[in-house]
Amino acid sequence: MNKGLNEICKMKKEVISIDPEATIQKAVESMNKEKIGALIVMKGECISGIVTERDVLYKLANTDINEDIHDVKINTIMTPFKKLIVGHADDTLEYLMKVMTEKHIRHIPIVDKKCKLVCLASIRDIVRFLLKDTEMTVKYLSDYVQGNYPG
Fold it and tell me: For residue 145, what is the DSSP state?
């Protein structure tokens, strides 16, 4: 795993997941409690998909006023595994940021070679790491150019 992605995965807490048969009510409660915008949908040990705040809002906007949205199952609104965009442990952060930007996604599951979930990275995590890394590089180069380093 590359250094940046490894650091992001280490700092991330446990990935919060939800069963595909759970309801939107349960998903919203979990996202609010954990202060997160996406849940990995898991059936046992296997990734079934991802459900995000956007999925919930889209369903809400397209629901008949008489339908009880609270009881809608996650598997009807989630992005299923077949359509899921994933990252791999050896992807660079720059590559992941480009994919996420082009595909308009804010969360990307990182999987190993056997498609087992390693972590869930957000665009915020990636930008934060790259910004920190860039700031350090600028500082080192500035110190070098100005001769401000121990000799």
Answer: H
